[in-house]
Specification:
alpha+beta, Aminopeptidase, 34% helix
Length: 149
């Protein structure tokens, strides 16, 4: 299988939605059209600094997606990257798609001048964590969430 990775473009909406639904289902999060429309608008807003990559097979079918963004790191006085979402179609896992997505993410981070890209994942995402352990360094940080409602 030949996979290519590129920036998401306006013609990719249908494939992106299918992949993003798969991602939401994996994390058991409801997905509404309103959410899809909002995230899509972030991707194409040049002032938002929110980006998306799509992996496609040789027939042009979307097989993976990645959303990432710029965020300030006050201790560094610099911008860094943050990977929000990564999803590879279950039928395409284990075929190098995730490696190509991360390779492209690294290139994009270099273009942006980010010293690193950071992300979080679910504790029980064992398959994903095995990939992350191979491709990146685990940080010392634990994640907490303050609910405000």
């Amino acid at each position: 299988m030949t996979i290519t990775v590129s920036a998401l473009n306006l013609n990719d909406r249908e494939q992106w939605e299918k992949l993003y639904h798969g991602y939401a289902n994996f994390y058991q999060m409801p997905m509404t059209q309103e959410t899809l429309d909002q995230v899509w608008s972030w991707i194409f807003d040049p002032n938002n600094r929110f980006f998306a990559l799509i992996a496609k097979d040789e027939w042009g079918n979307g097989v993976g997606l990645m959303h990432y963004r710029e965020m300030p790191s006050p201790l560094r006085g610099a911008q860094v990257g943050f990977l929000d979402d990564l999803f590879v179609d279950p039928d395409c896992r284990g075929k190098g798609t995730v490696d190509l997505l991360f390779e492209r993410l690294k290139q994009e981070a270099q273009v942006q001048g980010w010293p690193f890209v950071r992300w979080i994942t679910a504790e029980d995402n064992y398959r994903g964590r095995a990939v992350y352990d191979r491709l990146a360094s685990k940080t010392q940080w634990q994640t907490y969430q303050l609910d405000v409602d």
